[in-house]
Amino acid sequence: MLSGGGANERWVTTQATNKTVSGPANVTISYNHQYTVTVAGYPRNGGSTSQPNIWEDAGMTLLISENASRGWKFIDWNGSGSGSYSGNSNSSSVQVNSPLVENATFYPGLQIFAGSNGAVAYSFGHQKGSVSGGSSFTIYAPLGTNVVLHSSPSSFLFSFSAWSEGATGTSSQTNVVLASPATVTASFTLNAPIVGGIVGVAFVALLAVFFVLRTHGRSRQST
Fold first, then answer.
1. How many domains does the chain have?
2. Residue 216 class from Cβ within 10 Å (0-12 exposed, 13-18 middle, 19+ buried)?
3. Cβ proximity of 103 and 65 under 8 Å
4. Can you give the pLDDT of all 223 residues of the chain as single tens digits?
5. What stretches of the chain adopt beta strand conformation (E)?
6. Do residues 15 and 86 both lie within one domain?
7. What is the DSSP string of 82-146?
8. Which of 106, 138, 168 is the last residue of a domain?
């Protein structure tokens, strides 16, 4: 093996070189020029990639691809070296013209469930949106992202009950820091004081109508 231009470059042969020389002779040995190719995912538990860390012949074309883990989403490739690829295609061809490094980036998902009779608004960075009652939506963001969630009942007849799964508490607003894929559910219930008050008022009104009608009926009978 010939010495290369550094830790990521070499010239190597697989030819047999053991011979008995009884006189002058010409020996020809062919060498392959090779570079290192490093393909990895970040974070590593976010998904897998098709190529391991290998030595590859200069000028070769390789196919790189990714496979996101459950709850994660592939975002893009960040490549360095002559012939590398950077972009958001799931798979791509690269040419080994130098040492290559290809990193696949994965984001964890936060699945947001909004219970019936309410909605959940979310915001992180410059992104914001909402999830309507009885539905769910998954957002994807970099590790360490702080996602702000705010619950709101659909009307005054309902109130926010509690957060569950990836968040806890009964405050209408909560924060979730993405360290891995997670799920958060917002639950809503009837607003007991309001509903009770409405029922009470309705009952009193019905009693008032009843007594008015009864009094009116007695007055007619007496005449």
1. 3
2. exposed
3. no
4. 455 567 899 988 876 666 676 767 676 778 889 999 999 999 999 999 987 789 999 999 999 999 999 999 999 999 999 999 999 999 999 999 999 999 999 999 999 999 999 999 999 999 999 999 999 999 999 999 999 999 999 988 899 999 999 999 999 999 999 999 999 999 999 876 554 454 445 545 565 555 655 665 556 665 5
5. 2-6, 9-12, 32-42, 47-49, 54-57, 61-68, 72-80, 91-95, 100-114, 118-124, 127-131, 135-140, 146-153, 158-165, 173-177, 182-190
6. yes
7. TT---BS-SEEEEE-SS-EEEEEEEEEEEEEEE-TTEEEEEEETTEEEEE-TTEEEEEE--TT-E
8. 106
* Same domain for 182 and 171: yes
Same structural domain for residues 187 and 200? no
Nearest to 94 by CA among 80, 76, 106: 80
Residues 12 and 100 in one domain: yes
CB–CB of 67/73 below 8 Å? no
| Domain membership of residue 188 as a residue range | 109-192
Same domain? 14 vs 83:
yes
The token pair that represents 44 in the structure block: 């590593």
102, two tokens = 């290809």
